[in-house]
Amino acid sequence: MTTYAIGDLQGCHVEFVELLERLEFDPRRDRLWLAGDLVNRGPDSLACLREVMALGEAATTVLGNHDLHLLAVARGGEREKPGDTLAEVLEAPDRERLLDWLQSRPLLLRAAGTPGSGETVMTHAGLPPQWSVARAADLAGELAATLTGEHAGAFLERMYGNRPASWRDDLEGVDRLRVIVNTFTRMRFIDAEGRLDFTAREGLDSAPPGFAPWFQYPRHDDPWLLFGHWAALQGRVPGSRVRAEALDTGCVWGGRLTALNLANGERVSVPSRRDRPRSPFPTTRSSP
């Protein structure tokens, strides 16, 4: 059995199918970990959802900010934003089944390491050094319980926002859940205390004063961290002080869709089939 980790699909269904063919992926034998953002910006969000869901136990995905945005639009009263490509999902006859499935996805995946190595962890945006893997798993569980509970709609209505910008153990209610969501799905630059910056979303040279990419801070443990979300990195993590793998190589923006073989570290990718690349940094409101 081989497990592959794949970066953000964002509606790039043709490339996803092509990549699985390149991998000779067999769902009876192999497994997929997907870094979230299955939907939005690309042309075939509905096909991506259906494809991943149909793979059953052979594929698992974490939630990304665009996945949460779909849920907020469908079930939290949020409006679609310019550039969204969610209408086909929202109008699909099987939308409720797809949304139920998506809403039950986790924020964090983890697998035990081999002797002498740390465990493997996937989140959409990364893992701040202030959170151990065990702590992060607990916090991801809090959000999962909310999204699958009776108050999910109320939370989705209030999920958007940039405040609080940093974690505190005494946070409660929506503020607590919002920091959890923003850390797991929107984080790029943080300061030494773990405060999130939401103004910069391009390359490393766009870091505000006092901030650096989350992976340039050391950790006290040694997990292998798999993440997507940051297309401008182009699959690289310069200056990283942790074991990290950037998986979002910007397929929806004219780049490539990439898979990482977790057994041997080999990367396989296919080019985007989009006719005209677009900027990966559209202006949006403060949101997941």
Automatic annotation (TrEMBL):
Residue ranges of domain Calcineurin-like phosphoesterase in the record: 1-130
Protein name: Bis(5'-nucleosyl)-tetraphosphatase, symmetrical
Enzyme type, top EC level: hydrolase
Classification via InterPro entries: ApaH (IPR004617), Calcineurin-like_PHP (IPR004843), Metallo-depent_PP-like (IPR029052)
Organism annotation: Halomonas flagellata
EC number(s) stated in the UniProt entry for this protein: 3.6.1.41
Domain of life, source organism: Bacteria
Catalytic activity: P(1),P(4)-bis(5'-adenosyl) tetraphosphate + H2O = 2 ADP + 2 H(+)
Keywords, sorted A to Z: Hydrolase
UniProt entry tagged with the keyword Flavoprotein: no
Disordered, as annotated region: 268-288
A molecular function (GO) term: bis(5'-nucleosyl)-tetraphosphatase (symmetrical) activity
Family annotation (CDD domains): MPP_ApaH (cd07422)
Family designation: Belongs to the Ap4A hydrolase family.
Function text: Hydrolyzes diadenosine 5',5'''-P1,P4-tetraphosphate to yield ADP.
